[in-house]
Amino acid sequence: xxxxxxxxxxxTCHGRLYPDYVNIIRSPFQRxxxxxxxxxxxxxxxGKTQVFAYHExxxxxxxxxxxxEVAQITRTICxxxxxxxxxxxxxxLAHDLGHPPFGHAGERGLNNSMKKFGGFDHNxxxxxxxxxxxxxxxxxxxxxxxxxxxxxxxKHNGPIKKVSDSxxxxxxxxxxxxxxxxxxxxxxxxxxxxxxxxxxxxxxDGFRAGFFSIEDLKSLPFIATIIDKFDSQNPNCADSIxxxxxxxxxxxxxxxxxxxxxxxxIKKNNIxxxxxxxxxQSFTADFSTQMHEKIRQxxxxxxxxxxxxTSVARMDMKSQxxxxxxxxxxxxxxxxxPMEVREGISSTTKDEDLAECICTYxxxxxxxxAVDEHKKLFDASYRF
Length: 384
Fold this sequence. Notes:
Elements (H helix, E strand, L loop, with lengths): L27 H10 L2 H5 L18 H18 L4 H10 L8 H11 L8 H12 L13 H8 L11 H9 L10 H24 L5 H4 L3 H13 L5 H30 L5 H6 L9 H19 L2 H23 L18 H13 L3 H12 L6
Helix pairs in contact: 1-4, 3-4, 3-9, 4-7, 4-9, 5-15, 9-12, 9-14, 11-12, 15-16, 15-17
């Protein structure tokens, strides 16, 4: 496939921080994708909450299945726009690597715990995983990914005008990520594919949990249109089939809207090169105003019926408490940390360094690892 002039080409790849050989079989971005798929952090996503705790059952999404769905949608859109599919896929697979256990509840717990040490941001943790925490090679720490994959992952939500995180600040000095400008179009597509994936799998998961019905969903006019058309063509279908009709049509509507509006923006702004994309004052890839309004209405519905449901709220409360309990316990006595984690820590270690070590340890746990660790520390009946 011939890439568009505004795509990130393999031949113009900015390279890697550490010298590496050229692979005659795989492109630089294919190698990035493969390194991410083979990483420990990527495998751990299978045990991390999306909305429901992973052990809840009923085939609810995890961070891993979510990331795969985002990658699939990203590739579809990149192919249609003649963008670099491999780069888009790599960024999509990397975008949630840094999420802590228990989803956003776990992130709130870590951010609260780290408040006086600069807070916690899962995007920065993704950067740490890619560039430091994964150790596969004798010559360097991290996965030694290309500039484009690291830059696209760090900036997939937009430019970073003010850099407050110390790790990002130091890393940017040695491998300048052009933080003040937008990321590649491949990265932007991955960001909106993330929105498409989670909006629609949350409809599916919330319905399967029994939090709302098809009739409830029909209170949204755009979903009512989808289901009325489906019912007229397929009368008497079970709700378990009708929900698939809703999600696949919604995904298609969002994908086509993103494609059309992005192509419109490319033409309107006379975008010819990848550098043109980065110099824009707003996202080049974006939904239309009409689709943004539909998504706003959908978010309102899901917030009312799903995200604030009693069972989800209680799970979030317990999850956040587990994370905060662990952090506080380890800060109060570093000697209860596993030996391999406390290597280099002593009674003279600065609080900020100890907090950073503890935060990294907790952030890279799965849900069940965090639950088990909490039981070991706080359940008196737990048998060692």
